[in-house]
Structures are given as C-alpha cells and as structure tokens.
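[STRUCTURE TOKENS]
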Amino acid sequence: MGRTYFVEEGVGQYLTELSTKVKPYVTGLLIGQCSLQRDYVIRAVRTPPKEQQQEENMGPPKLASLDEEWITTHASQVSRMLPGGLLVLGVFMIATPELAKDGQNALRKLIFSVEKSLTKRRLWKPAEEDVSDRATLQICSATKKVVCRTYDVQDPKSSAKPADWKYQSALTASWLALGCTVNVNIHIPLLATSPNHDLEKNTKNGLNRWSKQIEDSVFLINGQVKDDDTELLEGQKKLKGNTQSSTQFSDVKVLTQLCQGSSPRSTATVQVCSGSINLRGAVKCRAYIHNSKPKVKEAVQALKRDIINTLSDRCEILFEDLILNEGPQKKNVEREYHVLPQRLFVPVAGSSVMLSDYKFGDEAAGEIQERFVEMLDQPVQAEDIHIAEDIST
C-alpha cells in the first residue's frame, strides 16, 4: 500500500492554472504535513523564474537544463516561512508530453537534493516515528494526467512507490493551532583560539546546545502536563459542522530544566575566551496540527521544532544581511548590538493556517509583500501582515 496525500482543492486549481502557461516545463514545491496515517498538501508553489531563463528558452526544450541549485535554494527560503508542523514534503513538475519520459528521473534527483539541503540546516534531531517518504508529482500539460510517487529520502537507493493523490475541500478548516512565547537568554562564549570570522559557526554551536535544552523541556498545554500518547483533544469538545476557519488554539508554556544530565556529578571545563555572543529577547512560536486524532507528542514536537527553527533561521538571516551590507571583514569592536529580524504571520487564503516571515526594523510592508509573491506566489495585503513580536537582540 502506498501513501495517500489529501490535497487542498485550491492546490488543484493552482496546478491547473500553471499547466495552461507551461512552456516547456515548470517545477515547484509541495507544502504540507506528514503523519503516520496520512499526509496533507495545503499549498503548491512554483519555482520563481530566473532572469536569464528567457534567453535559454530559445533552444530545444531539455530537462537537463533544470537548475537544481536554484530549486534547492528556493526550498530553503520557503522552509523558513513555514510555522511548526509544516514542511516541504515534495516537488512537482508540469511538463509537455515530449519531456514526460525524463520527468521522473529529474524529479527523483530533485527530491533528494531538496531534502539534503533542508536537513543540513536543521538543528533538531529527527524522531524515530518521523515519516521519511517525500512526494514527487508529475502532470502532463497536454493530457492533465497526474502521476504521484514517493521516495524514502533516508535511503539513497530508494525506488519509486505509487501514491494516491486525493483532493478535499476545506482541508485545514478545523486544524489545531498551538502557540507560545519563549524567553531567550543564550550566552555563547567565543574561544580565544577561534578566529573572529567563526562568529557564525560559534553561534550555531551555541544554538545546538540550547536546542537540546528545548528538546528536554516540559510543555504545559492550556496549563496541563499531558501524556505523550494521549489525544490532544481529549477532554475538549470538538467543533463540528463548521467548515469556516474554526481553529482551536492551545496556549503552551515551555518550562526549561535548570540542571541538565541525570548524573549528580559534572565536570567543568576551563577555556580561555576572547568574548561572547548573547542572544536575548522573547520569540513567538506557532505550530499547526491536523485534526485526525492528533497525539500530544505530535503537537509538542511540531512546536519544539518551530522554537528551534525560528531562532536559527533569524541568526542565519542576520549573518546573510551582515555579509551583504558590511562584507566578511569585521572590525574589532568592543561591543556591538544587532537586532534580529522580527517574526510576522500572514493568513493563507482559504485556510486557517498562517505562514510566517521575518522583517528587519527598516523593512517596508512592500518588501514583505514582494517576498511573498516571489517565494510563495501569493499576493498579500499590507493590513494582513501581523507582526508578532517586539524587537530582540
């Protein structure tokens, strides 16, 4: 038995529209949620066109010219815009009939590249029950025939398995949302032996240690500690008969343990430091979970990953910004403050799920709107941009 993908109807309309504009092919990402029983696709997003592609299109169409690096970079950028519980769970291609026979090989190569690129950036460890199947969707632009297959991305020799692709209306209408605010105060020593340009590497190491603390934290859902294997909605009335956006929201408190390790004895290491990095502020985190009898464990895991991702993504964005604006050469400064980008949330049309992004203080709403169009192929109204946080340093 292959996997079944339940797909938001709007995704079908989006892919149909794209297929009328195809010349000779278009690629993109599938965004959604995996669970042990079933998978959900809530959005499809085409790969942004590259400026020089116009000239390249003059010759005969070839899938060999597929720009793998461009597509994987897009996947990395999009994954930053996904709250907890959502991930890039596949790639799609709409192609003319003459390219169809090479399509499956190209998609296979692509899904492994995308997954490798996304895994490299993650600070959390995958869980045993994580689903490692990812989807490839091929659509013929002439016949509109849809072929969905999955590959196990943990196995480089994995062969294609057939999968079902089923459209459903109001797929996320009654999904569950969890939210929390986490106060961050991370102190990262900079060793005297490590050169100045290792700031990014040191920050990542510090975040790695902090992410283990988050993994070991206790999560109170609406003020209660719940057993991992209980149903998230146990004891709550389920909302029925309302297909409008009826998200049930759970408020979560995160309790981090002061002392780590089970052993009462610990060994201290003395290291000579030349400085330190301090990350301080309050971050807003959010996760979404399907409404098909979700377990507490699934919901907490989605929120943990959002907490870890949101901080590591912002640090990554800050370093990219510093390199762009200041160049890699750093001055010797006694004390320097940098403001991490703030998190914002934007509603998705026809869904109760909100997508996320980050803005620096001087960024205008227009720049955020442009980014949503470029990255997610979604127009956004300025009044729909909800900035969730105060400024953090």
